[in-house]
């Protein structure tokens, strides 16, 4: 029977080279050193067994050197002290985040000034005797970047891309049971060969590792494809394509039983097919099923189904394979996206896999947290820029109802890049959330014959593997692009010879989608550009992409490419473009434009690196949500500006807003929301107190927000997104740390350094504060709040019990939070 064990725990990690580990061998299975069991580990008799020992003795005699080691011929150097510099880690892990910031490397700003290097992971593990006779495969969801893997003295393989999943069949290399001894896996990770992207890419085994065991007759890896052919008259027609691999050397007769279960585990449909597959061969079989009264996957009701594939051989089930999917149709028409036949305005953000405290090594819970934050903003679509994501991100989008544009890293049709494309398509094509594949981003396609040929090949391959979803390429210019949906980046601001409206007019058959927009710089809680501190004004920065200062008066301009307001109005004028994909939902490390050092993160996010809302978050809420929104900026702590005018902005989707300072009305302004006007502004002469915005619809008050002048920082406040954790060593509580005044109000200018102490059944996984110019380590025990906020990630251990988090700072009242970590049965 198939099992899939998580293989994330109890790895040893070493930063830097550990000696020379070879990949070539003169004799089978004889690479020594760290790739095999060491003295204190349990040897398999053969590894240093009879044959090798005799050879070693002969050579010792011939050379007259009693200390000669056979490994000098067969294998690798092992450092003298094998234990120096090795630490125990669990995965996912990003070693780059543990390095000190450095300005040394060329182009360091793109990688957030965290240097690359080489890191080794080594794990000793046992395989029970009863597993002999099963196929055993090790699966890596993602390793950054170039990786090499050795198992028990054999070199197993290299993998180049940090963004694609890969696996190795290690059945024959393993040692089974007590008698054979300990198994050793060694993984070398190396970022020194060059970056794949222009953003922070981290380093190490940053996604999950799995050990999968199954019969020699089994569903192939990523071997199912479930698709909705049509839905009508309360029936859905489903095709299930199943690829079976027969790794026996003889022909096998078997039956495939495919069952579709609803979310309560109730059988919705089932079918069986008899098949025969030759030895060491594969076979793909199509089965048609119908589901009555299907619960469709939609954004408001993201219903999931489980397709269970059972292989029966001589009446026994030899493999059971589960595919989680949804029943739904997607179609991109000339006026945009249709999900289950209904138009959906795409309210999208582009994002990298990166977060405070963990870098690229996001625990599953953090993926989910990020998606929830985006949904709260009204966002309904996520572009995986510019590479396939971790599987758990897609699972969160499936569960929570977020559409996904999944993106190929590089649009090249070399064999290696086609393999990467295939791995994305085969791995991910059952996710109902994915509505479109993007084959590339801003490639230099226009006018190049070579690029056209490459795109044609890639397009044909992608359509063959998944004929159900449209393809796009995110481009700055549409010249020469032949693709289902013309993806346009920054059509609101990049002025070529033609506007996108004119281009569309000249291409009456085209379908167009905005694949990237806005690129607006801002820093949470900052209202004036601060190049020395690496921070941008929330009104809009005066600095261009290349870091040049523009002459735009006090308030700043578009920052990067355009303001959120300009992009939204552009969309309203060009509704055939499907919606917006804002660059980006969250800040990420690296790509520190417009500044370089001391900035270490980007400034594009609507939310900062910790997921705390910047002011523009409320602008997007006001264009993307129906419920009444009103938001005031800036904060109201400007004692140094008493008597001087302060620019006040209000974001709203209501028709009128009244501004009130200390009980005195400063007037009512109308917002022409239908025409895309969501930002109102006032010049207010500063006096401390309470500034309030009161929003009206049809003359009725529907929402209000206030900013109060606070007194000094007085106390720390901790708040968890959930106080119950699973005691699985993986679950995470996301804790918002704020500094408050005596009245409990957030102090928006506080920057106190907070010390964290964790006791009980949990550990501090990481810290952050969203400040692009902060160089405190995400992996320490202390972090300053930035404009009132910091973030702590606390991870469970595998023992149930309480976890206490104490936060203290000189001169502030401390806070203590208790979390409960429970066994899964208790939750
Ligand atoms: C785009 C690019 C993104 C990011 C962005 C910054 O052109 O696709 O990856 O670099 O610019 O504005």
From TrEMBL:
InterPro entries, per database record: Beta-gal/glucu_dom_sf (IPR036156), DUF4982 (IPR032311), GalA-like (IPR048230), Galactose-bd-like_sf (IPR008979), GH (IPR017853), GH2_Domain-Containing (IPR051913), Glyco_hydro2_dom5 (IPR040605), Glyco_hydro_2 (IPR006101)
GO BP terms, alphabetized: carbohydrate metabolic process
Record has Hydrolase as a keyword: yes
Glycosyl hydrolases family 2 sugar binding domain span: 117-213
Domain Glycoside hydrolase family intervals: 716-816
Residue stretches making up the Glycoside hydrolase family 2 catalytic domain: 331-475
Residue intervals of the DUF4982 domain: 643-703
Alphabetical list of PROSITE patterns matching this protein: GLYCOSYL_HYDROL_F2_2
The Glycoside hydrolase family 2 immunoglobulin-like beta-sandwich domain, residue ranges: 223-328
Record's keyword terms, sorted: Glycosidase, Hydrolase
GO molecular-function term, one example from the UniProt record: hydrolase activity, hydrolyzing O-glycosyl compounds
Similarity annotation: Belongs to the glycosyl hydrolase 2 family.
Protein name listed in UniProt: Glycoside hydrolase family 2 protein
Species of origin: Paenibacillus agri
């Amino acid at each position: 029977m198939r099992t899939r064990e998580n293989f994330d725990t109890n790895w040893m990690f070493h930063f830097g080279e550990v000696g020379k580990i070879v990949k070539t061998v003169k004799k089978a299975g004889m690479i020594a050193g760290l790739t095999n069991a060491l003295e204190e580990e349990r040897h398999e008799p053969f590894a240093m067994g009879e044959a090798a020992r005799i050879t070693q003795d002969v050579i010792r005699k011939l050379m007259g050197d009693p200390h000669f080691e056979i490994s000098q011929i067969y294998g690798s150097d092992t450092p003298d002290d094998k234990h120096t510099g090795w630490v125990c880690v669990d995965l996912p892990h990003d070693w780059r985040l543990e390095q000190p910031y450095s300005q040394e490397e060329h182009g360091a700003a793109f990688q957030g000034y965290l240097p690359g290097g080489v890191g080794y992971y080594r794990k000793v593990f046992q395989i029970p005797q009863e597993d002999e006779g099963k196929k055993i495969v090790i699966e890596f969801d993602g390793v950054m970047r170039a990786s090499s893997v050795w198992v028990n003295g054999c070199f197993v393989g290299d993998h180049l891309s940090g963004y694609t999943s890969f696996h190795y069949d290690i059945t024959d290399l393993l040692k089974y049971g007590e008698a054979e001894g300990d198994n050793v896996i060694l993984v070398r990770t190396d970022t020194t060969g060059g970056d794949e992207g222009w953003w922070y890419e981290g380093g190490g085994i940053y996604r999950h590792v799995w050990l999968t065991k199954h019969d020699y007759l089994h569903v192939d890896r990523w071997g199912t494809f479930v698709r909705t052919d049509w839905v009508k008259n309360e029936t859905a027609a489903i095709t299930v394509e199943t690829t079976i691999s027969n790794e026996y050397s003889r022909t096998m007769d078997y039956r495939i039983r495919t069952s579709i279960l609803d979310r309560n585990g109730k059988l919705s449909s089932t079918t069986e097919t008899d098949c025969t597959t030759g030895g060491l061969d594969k076979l793909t079989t199509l089965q048609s099923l119908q589901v009555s009264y299907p619960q469709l996957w939609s954004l408001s009701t993201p219903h999931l189904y489980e397709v269970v594939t059972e292989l029966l051989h001589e009446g026994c089930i030899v493999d059971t394979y589960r595919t989680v999917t949804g029943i739904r149709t997607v179609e991109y028409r000339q006026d945009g996206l249709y999900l289950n036949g209904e138009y959906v305005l795409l309210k999208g953000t582009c994002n990298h896999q990166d977060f405070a405290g963990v870098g690229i090594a996001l625990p599953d819970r953090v993926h989910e947290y990020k998606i929830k934050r985006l949904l709260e903003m009204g966002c309904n679509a996520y572009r995986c820029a510019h590479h396939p994501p971790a599987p758990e991100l897609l699972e969160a989008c499936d569960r929570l109802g977020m559409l996904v544009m999944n993106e190929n890293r590089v649009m090249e049709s070399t064999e290696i890049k086609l393999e990467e494309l295939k791995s994305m398509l085969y791995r991910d094509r059952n996710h109902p959330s994915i509505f479109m594949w993007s084959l590339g981003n801003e490639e230099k396609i226009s006018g190049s014959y070579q690029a056209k040929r490459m795109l044609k090949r890639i397009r044909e391959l992608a359509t063959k593997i998944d004929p159900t979803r449209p393809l796009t390429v995110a481009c700055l210019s549409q010249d020469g692009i032949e693709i289902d949906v013309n993806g346009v980046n920054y059509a609101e601001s990049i002025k070529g010879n033609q506007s996108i409206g004119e281009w569309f007019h000249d291409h009456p058959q085209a379908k167009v989608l905005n694949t990237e927009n806005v690129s607006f710089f801002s820093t949470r809680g900052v209202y004036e550009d601060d190049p020395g501190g690496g921070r941008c004004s929330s009104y809009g920065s005066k600095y261009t992409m290349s870091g040049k200062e523009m002459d735009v008066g006090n308030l700043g301009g578009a920052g990067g490419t355009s303001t959120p307001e300009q992009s939204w109005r552009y969309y309203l004028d060009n509704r055939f473009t499907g919606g917006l994909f804002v660059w980006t939902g969250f800040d990420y490390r690296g790509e520190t434009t417009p500044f370089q050092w001391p900035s270490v993160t980007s400034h594009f996010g609507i939310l900062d690196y910790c997921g705390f809302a910047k002011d523009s978050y409320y602008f997007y809420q006001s264009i993307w949500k129906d419920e009444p929104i009103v938001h005031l900026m800036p904060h109201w702590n400007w004692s140094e500006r008493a008597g001087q005018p302060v620019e006040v902005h209000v974001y709203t989707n209501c028709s009128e807003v009244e501004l009130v300072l200390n009980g005195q009305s400063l007037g009512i302004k109308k917002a022409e929301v239908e025409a895309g006007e969501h930002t109102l502004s006032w010049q207010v002469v500063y006096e401390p107190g309470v500034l309030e915005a009161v929003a009206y619809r049809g003359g009725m008050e529907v929402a209000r927000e206030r900013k109060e002048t606070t007194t000094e920082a007085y106390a720390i406040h901790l708040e968890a997104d959930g106080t119950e954790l699973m005691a699985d060593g993986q679950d995470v509580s996301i804790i918002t740390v704020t500094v408050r005044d005596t009245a409990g109000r957030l102090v928006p200018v506080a920057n106190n350094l907070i010390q964290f102490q964790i006791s009980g059944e949990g550990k501090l996984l990481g810290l952050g504060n969203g400040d692009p110019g902060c160089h405190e380590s995400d992996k320490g025990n202390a972090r300053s709040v930035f404009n009132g906020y910091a973030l702590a990630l606390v991870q469970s251990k595998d023992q149930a019990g309480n976890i206490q988090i104490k936060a203290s700072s000189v001169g502030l009242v401390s806070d203590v939070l208790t979390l409960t970590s429970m066994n899964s049965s208790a939750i």
